[in-house]
Amino acid sequence: MNAMRHPYAGTGDHTGSYYAASANAAPLRPELQGAHDTDIAVLGAGFSGLSTALHLAEKGHRVTLIEGARIGWGASGRNGGQIVNGLNASLQTIARRYGQDTARFVAGLVMEGGDIIRERVATYGIQCDLKPGNLFAALTDAHMREIEARWKLWRGYGIDSQEMLTAGQMRDHVATDRYAGGMIDHRGGHMHPLNLALGEAAAFESLGGTIFEMSPVTWVETEGPRPGLRTARGEIRAKTLVLCGNAYLGDVVPTLERRIMPVSTQIMATEPLGDLAARLMPSDICVEDVRYILDYYRMSADGRLLFGGGTVYGGADPRDIKAKLWKNMIKVFPQLAETRIDYAWSGNFALSFSRVPQMGRIGANTYFAHGYSGHGVTGTHTFGRILSEAISGDTGRFDVFAGLPWIPFPGGRTFRVPYSVMGSWWYGLRDRLGI
């Protein structure tokens, strides 16, 4: 298959985010030039590609990683940095759609991604400000009933790391009167996502892996015994090809492009808050509420509030990110009404219509994984391990996900954005009405 337009990668260095400004030092990797041959080529150096490549390198495979821009340039280096266990689709939804056996299978791996991150940080000494715990916040009594139902459901699958909190207990974590209560997940957490990505890239290279940056792909061959890809100045062939471009793959692989839709979310970072940071968030935990269009936030290592939220279907950037997020931040923390905003940025994640990540194979020797639908920090790390298992000959877990039917967006590529906007408006109205 052949496509020549790549609208995302290859545009230069990292976006003007707080993460980019505070990133650990990292080398500039070379551009792919000339003809190359490898055992396994992985396209995309976000968390999916990095996790897959690192797992494969640990198993002794010869792996080459190709990135259109810089390591972690896309969602992996721009996200909220929150380790949130679970998929976007609930275990109840998965059981209803795919059966109880599939729900039990998914329940058995939803905590795995966070464990992989903690293992990586410990094993390779990655400096990414990793901290424990995340909090789900309820704004209404209806939200509390929703959270409690989830707590009971997960305990029924043997997941017992979560604890219900009253409104008073919530204030031990967040200095606001906005919440009716919530739930803490002690196996969640947060970290500097770009520094995690950079650390995983360094770990991969320490095991003999090769990385090419600033090499946007213009052509991909997925069929035949030796799939490959081509850039403006180079080409690589491999025994196995893995596609991990997610929301930033563009239309280079049309078969995958129509399965997902890029959706942007926005984040801003305040000036350092000094002693106020600990007063606002005494337990230094990360928070997200449970609305359809949610707020999520946490403190950075240097005491800035990183506050995110909002969505734009189709992946466009809002004209004024600060204005879009400011009013929601002040509802949570009116104490910050006079606070300066130092950084504001946007990034895309890949949404699948079912809200379940997709994994599969194109032809005999090309694998892919994408569509984490806003839960990519943990999901990518789990799926990278599963892809490495399949490529190494153990297809058990891969086959379960590959066998799940994917659902196209109603209206196809042309109408998927307006359809999703209408759905978002409806669920946003329900949030505003508290139902």
Automatic annotation (TrEMBL):
The keyword Oxidoreductase applies. Residues 39-389 form the FAD dependent oxidoreductase domain. SUPFAM superfamilies: FAD/NAD(P)-binding domain (SSF51905). Keywords: Oxidoreductase. One of its GO terms (cellular component) is cytoplasm. GO terms for molecular function: oxidoreductase activity. InterPro entries: FAD-dep_OxRdtase, FAD/NAD-bd_sf. Gene3D superfamilies: D-Amino Acid Oxidase, subunit A, domain 2, FAD/NAD(P)-binding domain. Pfam families: DAO. This is Gamma-glutamylputrescine oxidase. It comes from Paracoccus halophilus.
